[in-house]
Design a protein that fits this description.
Order of helices and strands: EEEEEHHEH
Shape: extended
Family: Belongs to the glycosyl hydrolase 30 family.
Helix content: 10-25%
GO molecular function: galactosylceramidase activity; glucosylceramidase activity
Oligomer: single chain
Number of domains: 2
Structural class: alpha+beta
Largest sheet: 2 strands, antiparallel
Protein name: Glucosylceramidase
Number of helices: 3
EC number: 3.2.1.45
Strand order of the largest sheet: 1-2
Pathway: Steroid metabolism; cholesterol metabolism
């Protein structure tokens, strides 16, 4: 198994060749993370993954107030905010939905828990593409009737109703 966070469930790797390791998630096992805790002021926590085998490897450090060696100087002014992060998540495309639905119910539960629960990575947003995308099995739209500004012919397709909604 690949090392992971202390106390977290480690990754069980599966090699797909060409350095493409993935972590197994099935009906009985899915790797998880420890609950995230904000670091103390002046400190940071870094999570690093790599092809060499790191899987969300956790390390801690402290920001230096000044650097005595030449290099990059990063100044953080936490009193000035430039943007707001609403959350983190992923996309539920037709391809993702089809793959999730091919799993057994317990494996689906494990997978979704690994994304959305406190024992997972705590996603709180999901994006659903409108109509088909490049991850669909066929081209489709919701209303192909020209000049239908009132959307009288708007209809969801089976992919949406059966796989995503």
């Amino acid at each position: 198994t690949l090392s992971c966070l202390p106390g977290a469930r480690p990754c069980i790797p599966r090699d797909f060749g060409h350095g493409s390791l993935v972590c197994v998630c099935n009906a009985t096992y899915c790797d998880t993370l420890d609950p995230l805790v904000l670091p103390a002021p002046g400190s940071y926590i870094k999570y690093e993954s790599s092809k060499a085998g790191k899987r969300l490897e956790r390390s801690e450090g402290r920001f230096q107030s000044s650097l005595h060696t030449p290099g990059l100087l990063l100044t953080l002014n936490i009193s000035t905010l430039y943007q707001y992060v609403k959350g983190f998540g992923g996309s539920l495309s037709d391809a993702a939905a089809m793959n999730i639905l091919k799993l057994s119910r317990p494996a689906q539960d494990n997978l979704l828990r690994s994304y959305f629960s406190e024992s997972g990575i705590e996603y709180n947003l999901i994006r659903v593409p409108m109509a088909c995308s490049d991850f669909s099995v066929r081209p489709y739209s919701y209303d192909d009737v020209p000049d239908d500004y009132e959307l009288k012919h708007f209809r969801l397709v089976d992919e949406d109703v059966k796989m995503k909604v």
